[in-house]
Design a protein that fits this description.
The protein is mainly α. It folds into 2 domains: 107 residues, no CATH class; 90 residues, no CATH class. 59% of the residues lie in helices and 0% in strands. The protein is built from 12 helices and no strands. The longest helix has 18 residues. The relative contact order is 0.11.
């Protein structure tokens, strides 16, 4: 019987985020984990938003490493199944304990990470989830077949998305622009966040994000507005 989502989150939820931060990254069970980009990205993002979850992640990692599930319970869905991170099964336990140690050292008061722009694919999506939803969902390689142009795709997003999420997107757009990256870095950012088509001419990636921010921040058109009454 598969584990209920509440119980899964209580036992493995934050551990899963730590492991997911390593997907697509080079993993070496022999290196000091606090030096890896994936660990630094997880610590930096979590420290600046929900710092108490660092301790939760450390505890979950240690508990899993000390009491690894058997194949039967994995098959029944009663435990979290660690995805393939490029390590042999015999090294997973030491790797998890190394992650826990790195998190413990990373939450010391004198180890607070300095703010900076995201450095990994995971961190970009963790910091800008709704922007990733827009770019990956509405500006994939299929966009030219589905919409007349970029603005039509954006309007479809705005017309089908909850206003609270649109407001979140507005904040994320201003935040990513406030990073003041170089132009080529913004081209990398939109690709990391899932955009598979070029910005519309003559916009650069940064200029296109600024144009999107303007459109998202504009008040929605009011339909059926009554004309002013005459006395």
């Amino acid at each position: 019987m598969a584990m209920e989502s509440f119980e899964f989150d209580r036992r493995y939820g934050e551990m899963q985020r730590v492991v997911n931060a390593h997907l697509g990254q080079d993993v070496d069970a022999g290196e000091r984990e606090e030096t890896s980009e994936a660990v630094q990205a997880y610590i930096r993002h979590t420290w600046n938003r929900q710092p108490w979850l660092l301790a939760v992640a450390e505890q979950q990692l240690r508990e899993y490493a000390r009491n690894p599930p058997g194949r039967l319970r994995l098959r029944l869905g009663e435990y979290y199944r660690i995805p393939d991170v490029g390590l042999p099964e015999t090294e997973i336990q030491d790797w998890l304990l190394g992650l826990a140690d790195a998190l413990r050292r990373g939450i010391e008061p004198d180890a607070a990470p300095r703010p900076c722009s995201p450095q990994t694919h995971w961190e970009w999506h963790a910091r800008f989830p709704e922007l990733g939803q827009l770019l990956g969902g509405w500006f994939s390689q299929d966009m030219p077949d589905e919409f007349a142009d970029h603005m039509a795709a954006l309007d479809d997003y705005l017309g089908s998305t909850d206003p609270d999420l649109v407001a979140r997107l507005c904040g994320e757009l201003h935040e990513v622009l406030a990073l003041r990256l170089e132009e080529e870095e913004y081209a990398h950012v939109v690709a990391e966040l899932g955009m598979e088509v070029d910005p519309p001419a003559p916009y650069t990636a940064a200029a296109w994000l600024a144009r999107v921010a303007e459109r998202v921040a504009a008040p929605p058109a009011q339909e059926g507005r009554s004309s002013a009454s005459h006395g």
